[in-house]
Design brief:
- The chain is mainly alpha-helical and 205 residues long.
- The chain folds into two domains: 1-35 and 150-205, no CATH class; 38-123 and 134-146, no CATH class.
- It has helices at residues 4-33, 39-63, 70-82, 91-115, 123-144, 152-178, 187-202.
Length: 205
C-alpha cells in the first residue's frame, strides 16, 4: 500500500524531473538563439546523451524478469546505430537523421508493447524521449534559419510551464487522496507538462 511519504517522494521526483527538463529546453533555446553553440555540435551532444539513456533502458530490460526478445534487441541496436551515424552538417542531413531516429524510437516502443503487453516504457526513458523530441524541434528551427529571436511570448509560456508543473504535482496528490486504488502513476501529469513545453517551443516559429 502506498504511504503518504512514498507518494510525496514520487511527486517530488516527478516535479524535479519536469522542472529540469524545462530548464534544459530553455538553456538550449537561449544558446542557439544567441549563437553560442553550433547546431551540428549540439546535435551530436544531444544524441550522445540520449544514447546513454538507451543503454540504461537496455540494462533495465535485461534486469527484468522477462528476457529481451530478438525483436526488441534488434530495435534497440537499430536505435543505437542511428545515434552514432556521424555529424549532420546541413539542414538536409539533419532532417534525414532526425527522421530515422524518430522512426527507430517509435519502432522500439511498439516492439516493447508487442512483446510485453503488460509493460510500459519506464518513466526515466519516457522523460528522455519527450525531451529529445523537443530538442530536435529547436535544432530543426536553428538548422532551417540562420537565427531566431526569443520573443516575449516564448518567455511567458516558459514561465507558465514552471507554474503548471508545480500545479500538476499538487493536482496529482489530490487525485491520489481521492482514488488511491486507481491512481498508480503520474503519466497523465507528465504528458500534460510536456504538452505545455511543446507549445512554448512552437511559439518560437
Amino acid at each position: 500500500m502506498k504511504t503518504q511519504e512514498n507518494i510525496d517522494n514520487v511527486l517530488q521526483q516527478v516535479s524535479d524531473k519536469l522542472l529540469l527538463a524545462q530548464q534544459e529546453i530553455d538553456e538550449l533555446t537561449v544558446q542557439l538563439a544567441l549563437g553560442k553553440v553550433e547546431a551540428k555540435d549540439k546535435f551530436e551532444e544531444i544524441k550522445h546523451t540520449f544514447r546513454m539513456y538507451v543503454m540504461e533502458l537496455k540494462n533495465f530490460l535485461n534486469a527484468s524478469q522477462k528476457a529481451i526478445t530478438p525483436e526488441v534487441k534488434t530495435k534497440l541496436e537499430d536505435l543505437e546505430l542511428q545515434l552514432v551515424l556521424g555529424k549532420a552538417d546541413t539542414k538536409d542531413l539533419f532532417e534525414v537523421q532526425k527522421k530515422k531516429i524518430m522512426q527507430s524510437i517509435s519502432n522500439l516502443e511498439d516492439a516493447i508493447k508487442k512483446n510485453w503487453s503488460n509493460m510500459q516504457m519506464p518513466d526515466f526513458f519516457s522523460h528522455e524521449v519527450e525531451q529529445f523530441k523537443l530538442k530536435m524541434e529547436i535544432l530543426r528551427l536553428r538548422f532551417r534559419l540562420k537565427g531566431f529571436d526569443i520573443r516575449d511570448e516564448y518567455r511567458k509560456k516558459m514561465q507558465a510551464v514552471r507554474r503548471e508543473i508545480k500545479r500538476l504535482a499538487t493536482h496529482a496528490n489530490d487525485k491520489v487522496y481521492t482514488r488511491p486504488e486507481r491512481y498508480n502513476d503520474f503519466r497523465y501529469e507528465i504528458s500534460l507538462a510536456y504538452k505545455h513545453l511543446k507549445n512554448a517551443v512552437e511559439s518560437l516559429t
